[in-house]
Amino acid sequence: MTRPRSPRTVLGICSFTHDSAAALIADGTLIGMAEEERLSDVKHTREYPAAAVRWLLGEAGLTVAAIDTVAYNFAGHRYLAGLAGTPGHLLNPATRSRAFPHAASFMVIHHRFRQRMARLESLFPNANVRCVPHHMAHGMYAFAASGFSDAAVLIIDSLGETCTTSIGIGHAQQDGQARYRILESISDPASLGYVYGAVTTHLGWRRGDEEGTVMALAATGDPARFRDLLARAIPLTSAGFALSPDLFPLRVLRHGWPRVTAAFTSATCPSRDPGDDVTQVHADLAAALQERTEQVMVHLARRTRTVTGARRLSVGGGVAMNCVGIGKIIEDGQWEQVYVPPAPGDSGTAIGAALVADAVASCELVRSCYLGPSYPDFIPAAVPAPGLSARRVDDPARFLAVQLAAGKIAGLFQGRLEAGPRALGNRSILASPIFADVTGRLNAAVKFREPFRPFAPVILAEHAADYFCIDQPSPFMSIAVPVTALAKSKVPAVVHANWTARVQILERDHNPFLADVLDHFAAMTGIPVLINTSLNVKGKPISGTPEMAIDCLATSGLDGLMLDGGWWVSK
Hints:
Structural class: alpha/beta
Oligomer: single chain
Distance between the termini: 65 Å
Helix content: 25-40%
């Protein structure tokens, strides 16, 4: 029997909610993927990814008329399933007051979904617009990017239609195609992402953006203070977990509805305004939240092992960015290897939706994180911005290593734009971990963020075991692991308060230029480790274009910026 040919062109779209992105498959091959914020300079933009789509079409030499299928990362009719629980919510005194607003909000989102589909149909009149269930898109991407032949997939996020957590199984066929199916799921209102976002807001940071700040703060707190409260708030069940509506009220998908109850506030602390001091009670609450999150993540991973029988695990969804929780899953010892894709949040579902819609697409290129635009022909002006100058240097890798060894903090802009929220070596800020004041300088003058925020190390694979306690790949700064005594003594700047580091272990062929910089730096200093953080300041997206990178240099405490072609821009 002849296998049906896939659509010639499939455009995957994540849009209209947050973290807009687009991915394009043409004749079974992934052309690329780009997150709109890194081209529009609007962080977490929810707008239609016009710049990303324009780049993808240009990269493939196609027009809008050539798109056969548009794969959207939500199946919006499934929002109506959120109405089914209304009778039960009305019967429960703890949820009764929100039962109708909860139901109404799901109906509103369904209506908006229909409007979004109409817009996509108008933008692509020749295409079939296909809706892909959100967790199916998450799971397909998480599996396809892993490179595993067979693996379990655990997706943990805030909400995808009505699903918040799913367990699936993936299988890669000999021709490179991926097959993925969901075996179990947990539905709203039980949502780990909802809880973490709610407490993030309560502690004075932005939900959907600054959960990592709360995770960092947790290392400075004592979880015992609120341990029993969080255990009561998020009880474990045989198949997963639940939420106590007495502490985390029923979700209403509209602004202005609090996500913690008065009882939660009374038992913990008043909500913190963003400008207020961070005190010990805030750190203790963060610590208890983080500890319970880790416990739930490990519990879900064990459930996944039981359900699937698989030996390798891929984790996706927004909660997969909790690198400490991922480290705990690895420490639990249930899995031969644990993988988190470079874009585990919603932007990655643009790729996943496209893969679901194109049944014979090859997954080989999905395994790269370098999927976006590059600018090899960009030549900066002699004076790129007031106070800056540009010149071309010989042996740019060695030149950059010399600057770093001298204590300078430098941006690196090279090659294709990465997918995902973490610095992966093409849009990075690099610094030496040797200098005692480097984290203070980075936080205060470069990134403009809280002083307790840690910075991640990057190290070549052949040196990793000397500094970090990990026996599996960690290419995307997705895993917080214990450090060795050597790391504590030689590179304390990359060691967090809980004696862990979110390490990026670099294989030479994945980023040859960064590998050369590390080699030169090690030859000069004896230390094969660099600080690697994303090329942006707080509140701004990662610099996806040369102009954004130059602006980042001009408006921050960066000392210089290395651009493609050996262009060094400095103050």
